[in-house]
Amino acid sequence: MKLSLVVPCYNEMDNVQEFYHCAKACFRGKIDDYEIIFVNDGSTDKTLEKLYTLTEHEEPALQIVSFSRNFGKESAIYAGLAHSRGDTVCIIDADLQQRPEVVLEMMKILDSRPEVDCVCAYQEKRRENKLISFVKSLFYKIINGISDVDFVNGASDFRLMKRQMVNVILSMTEYHRFSKGIFSWIGFNTEYIPYEVASRKHGKTKWSPKKLFDYGVGGIIAFSTAPLKFVTVVGFVSAFLSIAYMITVIVQKLCFGIDVPGYATIIVLLLLMGGLILFCLGIIGEYLAKMYVQLKNRPIYIEKEHFDNRNK
Ligand code: UDP
Ligand code: MG
Asked: What is the C-alpha to C-alpha distance for residues 11 and 269, in angstroms, rounded to an integer?
């Protein structure tokens, strides 16, 4: 099989059928041996029902993987990759913001240049709120500054990968997944092409500012230990300053007989140090919490149903 399309869906009941027909129309006569894998990530609307209406079609190959609850897009991507059979696999959103025509462009590059393992589409112009766009750019600056892995600003999960790369991603079974980091960390030769994001067809984005913030923090923790080094540096600097101050106080008292007026200084320093210690503990706690969850070794997703029109 030439291509697998992996489509994570969470409450996309108005989009999935349109996506299916759009992809089918786009690939007709251009790619004939392909499959579409919809991963229903615990939708609470009629997404699954709408997906099952598509099973009346014989072509193309269709798989529907349905989770027992919402596990998040990262888990949906993993499940889709795990079920894929294509020599190449493309991850694409269900909301038609990423047009299937771009997949054909990606395919052309993979077909014509054997040295390329992956084609990733990046947004040249972000079509979102200026503040969110600014925060996202800032996030990329920070994470690129403190991590050994390269993160391309605007690059998404929308990418076409060869089987070898997919298998390597599947071998990485970490629980807290941050695909952008995993894609870069594993290496391989990636070609970036610009694409224009269309507006969402129906429904609204599943990413609230809080979810985005947590996802960003998770990414930093997964791909950098710089915050832990920061804790060490803070400890070192404050210890150094305390010793310097202690020496000054002793010299003032013994050599010049000056009594150091203390109350305000002590309170300010106490509060400052207390705050810093708690902040540093918080950073360590974030790593510890992630380790704790990872240690439990729970599955990345739980599959409740699986339909495959090639196994009927
Ligand atoms: N998605 C998912 N699980 C989630 C959140 C999102 O499978 O918990 C899917 C969603 O259905 C869509 C894709 O991930 O197909 C991208 O989500 P969305 O369009 O909300 O993100 P945005 O385009 O706004 O970044
Ligand atoms: Mg979207």
From this structure: 51
Q: In this structure, what token pair is assigned to residue 94?
A: 């269900």
Indicate the residue type of 139: F
pTM exceeds 0.90: no
Task: Report which protein residue has its CA nearest ligand 1's atom 16.
Answer: 93
CA angle 157, 49, 33 (to 5 degrees): 50
Whether 203 contacts 95, CB under 8 Å: yes
For ion ligand 2, residues whose CB falls within 5 Å:
93, 95, 97
* CB contact at 8 A, 119 and 193: yes
Pocket test for ligand 1, best of 6, 65, 71, 73 (most atoms within 8 A of CB): 73
Instruction: Name every protein residue with a CB atom under 6 angstroms from any ligand 1 atom.
Output: 8-10, 12, 41, 70, 72-73, 76, 93-95, 97, 205-207
Q: 259, 253 in Cβ contact below 8 A?
A: yes
Q: What is the pLDDT of residues 206-232, one digit of tens each?
A: 888 888 888 889 999 999 999 999 999
Query: How crowded is residue 215: how many other Cβ atoms within 10 Å of its Cβ?
Result: 17
Strand partners, 161: 89, 118
168 C-alpha vs ligand 1 centroid, how far in Å? Answer: 24
Q: Give the tens place of pLDDT for each residue, 255-267.
A: 888 877 777 778 8
- Ligand 1, residue 204: give the atom nearest the CA: 20
